[in-house]
Amino acid sequence: MNERTRLVGWAAIAVALAALSVPWFLWGADGVVAGLPVWVWYHVGWLCLVAVVFWVFTKRAWGLGVEGVSRDG
Amino acid sequence: MADTGLQVGIIVGYMLVALAIGVVAYRLTDRTAEDYYLASRTLGTVVLLFTTFATLLSAFTFFAGPNISYGAGPEWILVMGLMDGVIFGILWYVLGYKQWLVGKANGYLTLGEMLGDRFGSIRLRLLVAGVSIFWLFPYVMLQQQGAGTAIEALTSGAVPYWAGAGGITLFMIGYVALSGMRGVAWTDTLQGAFMLVMVWAAFVWVAGAVGGVGTATATLGDVDGNFLALGGGTYTPEYVLSTAISIAFGVTMFPQVNQRFFVAESKAVIKRTLPLWPVLVVLLFVPAFMMGAWARGLGIQAGASENVLPLLLAEYTPAWFAALVIAGAMAAMMSSSDSMLLSGSSYFTRDIYRPLVEEATEEREAFLGRVGVAVFATLSFVASLFQPATLLEIGDTAFGGFAQLALPVAVALYWTNTTRSGMYVGIGGSQAFYLLSVFTEVVPGSFFGGWSSSVVGMVLGLVLTISVSLVTSHALGEDASVYATGAD
After folding, report:
1. For this UniProt entry, which segments traverse the membrane (chain A) (predicted)?
2. Per the CB < 8 Å rule, is A62 touching B271?
3. DSSP assignment, residue A64?
4. Residue A56 is part of which domain span?
5. Which of B217, B414, B416 minimises the CB distance to A37?
6. S-S: B322 plus which of B52, B265, B313, B481, CB 3.0-4.6 Å?
7. Structural domain tally of chain A?
8. Is residue A66 part of a domain?
9. Confidence band for B2, pLDDT divided at 50, 70 and 90
10. Which chain A residues touch B222 with a CB distance below 8 Å?
11. CB of B273 within 8 A of CB of B109?
């Protein structure tokens, strides 16, 4: 994969991570699971996923788009 | 009365520990500005993580956050999670890591310095420092006001507001002047860890007292507007997104946070910090904000200006424990303020005093920085005595004001065709837009069915910076190559 494809891919992942932090599909849901609203559990799980993705990013793609940016872009 | 003595004792104890840490830090300090403001860029993973966290969120986690959950529902967990766990994490890389590389390569200590150098413009540097101090000053004032009010309430008026706020101010001047970034960061780490433990202890304690987590949460279903349901009331999708986006970007330009972008010891430290963010956010916010919501369900009565968490703890936990948490919250306030004082002082001495008044040596500048802390803290203390309405409003809207800076700065960092004129217009235009929306009716506070003027102003700043840069050429003295960060 070339640099640009990787950049676009990771940018898309970043946007998706942010966009789905709030469970829009559960809007109005009021179920309770194990003592907490179900959407709180979704959020907890999602942020754990975010942490894992961040970790993978630091291992696989760190520096992408930031390092190696010179005058020519 | 016994718990008042205990609370005061704990606060004094915290101050003594902070002071001791400050003395140790002072003994390790070189007498240079870089060391005073940035601990010579040597912070490790844990200290960086906690100092950023404590600086940013501590007082907020204890007071404002639970209050919002109490008033509007526990969805605040999602707003703050998106804001600090996800968006801020991404910006930590996009803006923070880039700033770290650029700052290390060129020796920058402040945001204004970084921009002024790139665009060959002292005026741009002054503009950025001026805008930052404009929003920071009232925010520090609010912290002092909070501390003064809390101490007055704690001692049932035995220590009047001015004495409480003044005492805290004096302590912070002495302590920050002594310790600089290193001491501040170490104290933050201690305080952040303490906070994490206390929040969980409180969560477990309250849950136990009312018959379990499930019982406490079940009460939310009976609250007007059903707190169990996602959304509703204040929480519209536009509100959730506007708030999270505006504050996450705003946070990155808050001087005390922006300066932390420069202080990591190594690339490895920044890499290790990133995945820990979302985890810490969840660990801290879920219990803290659930307790705020529970308080509503459990029928705790809190007035408009009262903090709900202390009331909840007073109801369900022993006095000594409530005292411990309140003292922790006071410590949290101090740990936010001390960082702000340090950064405010560095913006003032480095970006305003030095270019305009005298070109100081490193040692002299470190000295001036300490004087700056004293001046800044004293002025904001005096302001907190009068509490002018305008300043209160600026403090309350500071996050939005800082958010306006973020996108022009991001454009400047990444796009070599950015011009000096583009920066002037982008920063000036978005600030003017946002100020007009806060203080006048000329610009409305919300757009398109609920998007805040802060987010709209950010987009405006982005469009202005890019479009003006496209139609203007580089001015004499601009040097886009200073932001080139080669692979190493």
Report:
1. 7-27, 39-57
2. yes
3. T
4. 3-60
5. B217
6. B313
7. 1
8. no
9. low
10. none
11. no
